[in-house]
Design goal:
The structure holds two protein chains of two kinds.
Chain A (H helix, E strand, L loop, with lengths): L3 H14 L4 H11 L4 E12 L2 E12 L3 E6 L8 E5 L2 E6 L4 E5 L15 H4 L5 H4 E11 L2 E10 L8 E7 L5 E7 L5 E13 L2 E11 L6 E11 L10 H4 L2
Antiparallel strand pairs in A: 1-2, 1-13, 2-3, 3-4, 4-5, 5-6, 7-8, 8-9, 9-10, 10-11, 11-12, 12-13
Chain B lengths: L1 H13 L1 H41 L2 E5 H5 L13 H9 L4 E14 L2 E10 L14 E4 L8 E5 H7 L6 E7 L5 E12 L4 H6 E5 H7 L8 E5 L6 H11 L6 E5 H4 L1 H39 L1 H9 L4 H36 L2 E2 L1 H4 L11 E2 L5 H28 L2 H6 L2
Parallel strand pairs in B: 3-8, 5-7
Antiparallel strand pairs in B: 1-9, 1-10, 2-3, 2-6, 2-9, 4-7, 5-8, 6-7, 11-12
Helix pairs in contact in B: 1-12, 2-10, 2-12, 2-14, 10-14, 12-14
The chains are: A alpha+beta, B alpha+beta.
């Protein structure tokens, strides 16, 4: 006779191992990537037909709504990108000017990379933006993945369709594909490395490729990351941008 | 007066070499002025025509918010009820055509370029624009076909030819990414370099479907008869569109503000250059008159001693200087008019120097001048009057001396 407590535990474990729905997978995926605070040091390696260049940065984030990216490489030293909810501000030290990005400017590329400023915005859950369908499981680099198909709920979503590969064990994204309205593949994101920090798994190396440009990619590398540690006060303010 | 004129003429012919050199200096100044003024006017008139014929029409009806952000070409701010606007304008008897304009990235093989994409109605575009006449290879667009027209420079940059397929990556009206596969059916060689360099054209119905426009357009372009005063027309259009408070009417000058600002700046810069040329010519005349006066101080003293009035003597010098001005200006007029005639007739092909570079003017490689009668007359009048004015100072100096000092002058 199995004791009721043990039975409940076994049921919970089974539920955890085999989530019931695509929505549940997305919720766990998002919960896994949610930190109270995050402080990281990393680099962007931007490659295009003219060659490769590296931008180094320090980043700070609080929840899903506030983020500060400060570039530290020689060419862009002092340039900062501040995100407050859906608003993006840029600071240029030479001009000593803060510019608020809006409208079409949000669609522009961040420092010539394959990420747009728009990619940095949006604290909304994927479930708010997309209808999600679990279309099966696939092996990716020897690890089993859930394959999710996402279809935009509204017409204003930048990528009308996505495919998402989520690691069955870690509930971390391993690959994503972004599609246009026509169904054409636009970009792919591949997670190349995951690091354990404070008992949690964090993406530490990923590459975004423009599927329409063979020689274009942006590799995102995190050298150092701290989670859930106090951040400097007032760091996410317009006044602090010029410090 | 007849005596003074004959005295001035005698003095001019007495110092023939000096007169010739000074007149030639002035002639060069006047000729350069006429040549450059005609050139600038020609570039402005041709730019204006190329803006109206290929870029802006005489005026456009657009969403007020779109007009404020027109550099970004936002597809969100549109003319929703294009048919309603056309009905409202029907009573004015204007020619109109619909266009949707957006920015996109054009891909061909390994290369890509950011372009301005203009979706037009092939059936009605010719009522306002003359794009169809600029197709050099292939043919014009057809409704409903996935095809595109490219400017010659853009095609060359991409290595594109008629028959090639390109892909345009853009955003829909609501902001979603979209791609359009289009076959190049024609290459344009438009006199407007903006069209040649960074613009592609595609059928409006295709863009309407792909970009979720649902009948909305970015603009309704209008053509006015050339003889008509645009201001009065704009007033009529605004009154006709009173039922569409979200819409604005902008004429070509408002739509091509960048060109007007550049043209104005260049006019000011050229004005400075011309002023310098005239100063150089004026220094020559001044020097000639100064020498003429100082060489003839004793002669002036003798004329005054014989009873000739200072005013008459001053007038004689002014007429002498005016004579140099007239000879120089007339020579300059002939030379400048000859240069201008060549520039009007044949123009100057600067493509080897400026290549694909945009110089502000909407002129493609061959710059042609225009005739500017006011400038021709103005240059001659200015040349004569300026010469006379310049001679005033040295003659005044000589007349300030006492008669006895003048006679003793060595």
């Amino acid at each position: 006779m199995i004791r009721p407590a043990l039975a409940a535990a076994l049921l919970l474990a089974a539920a955890a191992a085999f989530p019931q729905s695509a929505e549940e997978i997305v919720r766990r995926l998002e919960a896994n990537q949610r930190f109270r605070t995050q402080e990281a040091e990393g680099s962007l390696v931007i490659t295009d037909r003219f060659g490769s260049r590296t931008k180094t940065f320090l980043s700070y984030a609080e929840g899903q709504e506030r983020m500060l990216l400060a570039f530290t490489n020689v060419e862009e030293k002092g340039q900062k990108i501040l995100r407050l909810r859906d608003e993006i501000y840029l600071y240029f030290p030479e001009a000593e000017e803060v510019v608020r990005l809006q409208g079409a400017a949000l669609k522009e590329s961040v420092m010539g990379s394959d990420f747009s400023y728009e990619d940095l915005t949006g604290e909304k859950s994927l479930l708010d933006l997309y209808e999600v369908k679990l279309s099966g499981r696939e092996l990716l680099a020897g690890r089993e993945q859930f394959l999710l198909e996402l279809k935009a709920r509204a017409r204003g979503v930048a990528y009308p369709a996505q495919k998402l590969w989520v690691d069955v064990e870690e509930y971390l994204p391993r690959r994503a594909e972004y599609y246009a309205l026509s169904g054409r593949l636009l970009k792919t994101l591949e997670v190349l490395e995951v690091r354990r920090v404070g008992g949690r798994s964090v993406m530490s190396r990923a590459i975004m490729r423009d599927a329409m440009k063979k020689s274009s990619s942006t590799e995102f590398r995190v050298q150092r990351v701290k989670l859930d540690e106090p951040l400097p006060k007032n760091i996410f303010s317009l006044e602090a941008l010029s410090w | 007066m007849k005596f003074l004129l004959s005295l001035a003429w005698k003095n001019l012919s007495r110092y023939r070499r000096r007169t010739t050199i000074t007149a030639v200096a002035l002639a060069v100044g006047v000729a350069v002025f006429i040549w450059m003024d005609g050139w600038l006017l020609g570039a402005e008139l041709e730019s204006r025509r190329n803006i109206i014929w290929y870029e802006a029409g005489a005026a456009k009806v657009l969403n007020q918010e779109y007009l404020e952000q027109i550099q970004n070409l936002p597809l969100k701010q549109v003319v929703e009820d294009a048919a309603g606007v056309e009905r409202a304008l029907a009573s004015l008897g204007l020619e109109a055509t619909r266009r949707a304009v957006f920015s996109g990235e054009l891909f061909l093989g390994e290369g890509s370029l950011f372009v301005k994409a203009v979706a037009l109605d092939p059936a009605t575009d010719g009522r306002v624009f003359r794009l169809q006449e600029t197709v050099r290879q292939g043919r014009f667009l057809q409704t409903g076909e996935p095809e595109t027209l490219l400017g010659e420079w853009l095609a060359r940059d991409l290595g594109a030819a008629v028959g090639d397929w390109v892909t345009v990556r853009a955003r829909s009206r609501f902001g979603a990414f979209q791609t359009l596969d289009l076959q190049i059916v024609g290459i344009l060689n438009c006199p407007n370099p903006v069209i040649n360099q960074g613009t592609i054209f595609l059928p409006l119905d295709l863009a309407d479907q792909a970009l979720e426009l649902e009948g909305a357009v970015s603009e309704i372009a209008l053509a006015f008869p050339e003889w008509q005063e645009p201001e009065a027309r704009l007033g009529q259009i605004r009154r006709a569109l009173a039922g569409f408070p979200e819409l604005a009417v902008a004429d070509w000058q408002e739509l091509a503000r960048d060109f007007l600002a550049i043209a104005e700046g260049k006019r000011a810069g050229t004005g400075m250059l011309l002023l310098l040329i005239f100063i150089i010519a004026a220094v020559g005349i001044s020097n000639t008159m100064l020498m003429a006066v100082y060489e003839r101080v004793r002669e002036i003293g003798m004329m005054r001693a014989l009873g000739m009035r200072d005013l008459s003597i001053r007038l004689a010098f002014l007429l002498e200087a005016g004579g140099i001005g007239l000879i120089g200006s007339a020579l300059g007029l002939v030379l400048g008019a000859a240069l201008n005639w060549y520039m009007v007739r044949w123009g100057l092909d600067l493509s080897a120097f400026i290549g694909d570079m945009q110089v502000g003017y909407r002129v493609h490689s061959v710059f042609r001048s225009a005739w500017h009668p006011q400038a021709l007359v103005g240059a001659v009048v200015f040349g004569v009057l300026a010469s006379m004015l310049i001679s005033f100072i040295p003659s005044s100096r000589a007349l300030r001396k006492r008669i006895t000092d003048c006679l003793r002058h060595v």
